[in-house]
Amino acid sequence: MFMKHSAKVFSLFSGFLLAGCSAGNMFPAAGDNPIKVESVPAGADVYVMGEKIGVTPMTVTHHDVFPNIYPSEKVSVYGRITLKKEGCLDFTRTVSGEISNNGLHAKLDCGVANPAPSADTVADVPRITQTVEQRLGKIRELLGKGLISDEEAKQARARILKDL
Questions:
Q1: Cβ neighbours of residue 1 under 8 Å, at least 6 residues apart?
Q2: What is the Cβ-side half-sphere exposure of residue 28, based on CA atoms within 13 angstroms?
Q3: How far apart are CA 141 and CA 49, in angstroms?
Q4: What CA–CA distance (Å, rounded) separates 73 from 119?
Q5: What is the pLDDT of residues 132-152, one digit of tens each?
Q6: CB-based contact 50:43 (threshold 8 Å)
Q7: Cα distance between residue 14 and residue 83, in whole Å
Q8: What backbone phi and psi angles, to 5 degrees, belong to 57?
Q9: Which residue among 20, 50, 81, 118 sits deepest, i.e. has the most Cβ atoms within 10 Å of its Cβ?
Q10: In terms of Cα–Cα distance, which of 55, 62, 120, 124 is closest to 84?
Q11: This model's pTM is above 0.85
């Protein structure tokens, strides 16, 4: 009886494996799910591997972000999505597991170029006590770690030099 039951289980299991192999969409890999890309405000240009591929809101494939083959000069943009919108700072993120699963929801910085300082603005406090060299060094550090894009670094540098 055990052999008869084992044979049925084996037969079902084998059939299941064969069906899974022939019907490739039965169990899609996590990387097959598209990445939803949204921005506030909407209508930002979406760049993947340094190329514009659309406008938010849209979906991007993992293959677009992580191509198997790409030119060596594009290594700095591999795995990254950049959003660009006129009048806003560029927004760049490296695609992580969280972004793969939940999508990229970007709030673009489209504020006034030189907003009036407020008592609630904690981010402005360190700038007041740092020298220009320290502030520029921080930009180089963030750029070196890949936390900001070249364009964001240029914009930040321009803001620092404009304050002189």
A1: none
A2: 7
A3: 22
A4: 44
A5: 788 888 888 888 888 889 999
A6: no
A7: 47
A8: -80, 145
A9: 81
A10: 55
A11: no
Confidence label for 23 from pLDDT (cuts 50, 70 and 90): very low
Q: Which two tokens stand for residue 14?
A: 């084998």
Q: Which two tokens stand for residue 86?
A: 């006129």
SS3 155: helix
Residue 19 neighbours by CB under 8 Å, 6+ apart: 26
DSSP 109: -
Site of tokens 């009048």:
87
Q: Vertex 124, ends 118 and 128: CA angle to 5°?
A: 115
Q: 68 is written with which tokens?
A: 């198997």
Q: What pairs with residue 94 in β-bridges?
A: 80
Is the N-terminal amide bond of 57 cis, ω within 30° of 0? yes
Residue 36 burial class via C-beta count within 10 angstroms: exposed 0-12, middle 13-18, buried 19 and up: middle
Q: Residue 37 burial by CB count (10 A; 0-12/13-18/19+): exposed, middle or buried?
A: buried
